């Protein structure tokens, strides 16, 4: 989740839904629709409405200028692939549009940032620079940060975050992401992933408000 210290309880449920659903409480809901895996989580501190549309489509609206959430659609497990996406991303404050995922053994939380709001993801004194990679039509800076006794998909744990952050002059809300190229760049710089868990094209917000609509699997 975001680079802010929070006490978060992760509660996950498996849901197969025939219609879009809303999430505005502190529970995470996970569903599969068509060939895409859908994940939504929030800490219950703000208003978040996530609508799980057909195929790779979803939308989210958030308000209240407080709280943290992550929603999106993708795959479980994730892995090396070309991820096409297209959409709109209109945050007012701190938010990300990214490829987001987890691995286990070792436990790692990772981000490939394609667009962001008011806060540059690398602007944190605890982030450590690990070089850069040119891929997907831009240069991405590579970063890592340790999370100590923080919430994860395995409960409270200590784990690293890996980040690829697209150049600020090339931020975008649609395109294709070669996740394998980012994974290789991380590995080449000493950042080793484990076994892939879920991987989604995600919108994440922190103490902000805004709207986004994303279609995974469809290029601009």
UniProtKB/TrEMBL annotation:
The keyword Hydrolase applies. PROSITE patterns: GH11_1, GH11_3. Residues 24-217 form the GH11 domain. Its EC number is 3.2.1.8. Pathway: Glycan degradation; xylan degradation. It catalyses: Endohydrolysis of (1->4)-beta-D-xylosidic linkages in xylans. GO terms for molecular function: endo-1,4-beta-xylanase activity. One of its GO terms (biological process) is xylan catabolic process. It comes from the Eukaryota. Residues 1-18 form the signal peptide. Keywords: Carbohydrate metabolism, Glycosidase, Hydrolase, Polysaccharide degradation, Signal, Xylan degradation. It is an enzyme of class 3 (hydrolase). The active site is at residues 109, 204. SUPFAM superfamilies: Concanavalin A-like lectins/glucanases. Belongs to the glycosyl hydrolase 11 (cellulase G) family. This is Endo-1,4-beta-xylanase.
């Amino acid at each position: 989740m975001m680079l802010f210290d929070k006490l978060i309880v992760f509660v996950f449920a498996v849901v197969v839904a025939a219609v879009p659903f809303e999430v505005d409480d502190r529970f995470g809901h996970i569903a599969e629709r068509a060939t895409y895996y859908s994940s939504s989580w929030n800490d219950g501190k703000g208003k978040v409405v996530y609508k799980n549309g057909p195929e790779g489509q979803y939308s989210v609206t958030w308000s209240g200028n407080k709280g943290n959430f992550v929603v999106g659609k993708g795959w479980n497990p994730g892995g090396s692939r070309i991820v096409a996406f297209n959409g709109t991303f209109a945050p007012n404050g701190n938010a990300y549009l990214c490829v987001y995922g987890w691995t286990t053994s070792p436990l790692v939380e990772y981000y490939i940032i394609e667009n962001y709001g008011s806060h540059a993801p690398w602007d944190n004194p605890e982030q450590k620079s690990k070089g850069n990679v040119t891929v997907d039509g831009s240069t991405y800076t590579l970063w890592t940060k340790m999370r100590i006794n923080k919430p994860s998909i395995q409960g409270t744990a200590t784990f690293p975050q890996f980040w690829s952050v697209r150049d600020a002059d090339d931020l975008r809300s649609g395109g294709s992401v070669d996740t394998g190229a980012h994974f290789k760049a991380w590995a080449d710089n000493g950042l080793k992933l484990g076994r892939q868990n879920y991987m989604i094209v995600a919108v994440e917000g922190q103490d902000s408000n805004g709207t986004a609509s994303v279609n995974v699997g469809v290029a601009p």
